[in-house]
Sequence to fold (311 residues):
Amino acid sequence: MNGLKWSRKDLISTENLTLAEINQIFSMADVFKASLKTDKAKLPYLNGKVVVNLFFEPSTRTRTAFEMAAHKLGADVISIATNVSSSVKGESLKDTARNIEALMADMIIVRHSSSGAAKYLADRVKVPVINAGDGAHAHPTQALLDAFTMREKFNGDFKGKKITILGDILFSRVARSNIYLLNKLGAKVTLAGPSTLVPMEFEKMGVKVSYNLAEAVADADVVMLLRIQHERQSATHFPSISEYANVFGLNLRRENLLKKDAFIMHPGPINRGVELDSPLADSGRSVILNQVTNGVAVRMAVMNLCMHATK
Ligand code: CP
Fold:
């Protein structure tokens, strides 16, 4: 499997990924997903390697999935709790990473609140750096696992499929990473939510913008909900959470706006009762937990490819 050609040391964004690279990740993730279902033994692709998880922001899914993926590939994993690391004593991101490299780490997975932090690191260390989310910029493995989950539902064919991403688009690295990926795969993307959180400028990315929930979801094959990212907002973008839920929340009362076979996605964490109500989040339409499971196989593929990149 490692005979495949892959030349990226790092995965920072989906913006520059080619369709061939995306399909390469998906094909490898298919193989890893099958092995996860049938084989309890570890695969040997990262035997003897040490992967360091460096998360400066909270995470449940991404961090655990990267740890699982590394373990499944035979690597040792060290997760650094940044709240008790020397970064709280003023050590810079660059110094932290270069010290981790000096300790003989073979790969760094980084999440940071600043857009550009992952690229900044990748340019300063020799080992592969995988972006696990940097500010509002990018969350490439989230978008890859989202698209991988859609691909399973679409039997591999994205042509003409309509994806509506609903919620806080402005502050969402998940939305940006999905837009780049879904455009390349041939899907049609609509962004929806309050105008303060979905600026018209996004149309320059080749997507449609809508401020009308009923119109935005009417012909969607997938509705992807995003939570309001209060941690990135310095001003109020809508009157109140309850007003947001009243106007843009997806609930049982609004289920009849969806196509019969439309399915629901969410990168997590869900704010139940705000962007999405529990009866829909836990319904047969929801593939939210499939996304989480697929995150392990997709991250195994990304880690394996970047670790064995050839120039
Ligand atoms: N989707 C996502 O990034 O979730 P976590 O913040 O739990 O990693």
Remarks:
- The chain has a mean pLDDT of 94.
- The longest helix spans residues 19-38.
- The two ends are 17 Å apart (CA to CA).
- The CA atoms of residues 5 and 24 lie 9 Å apart.
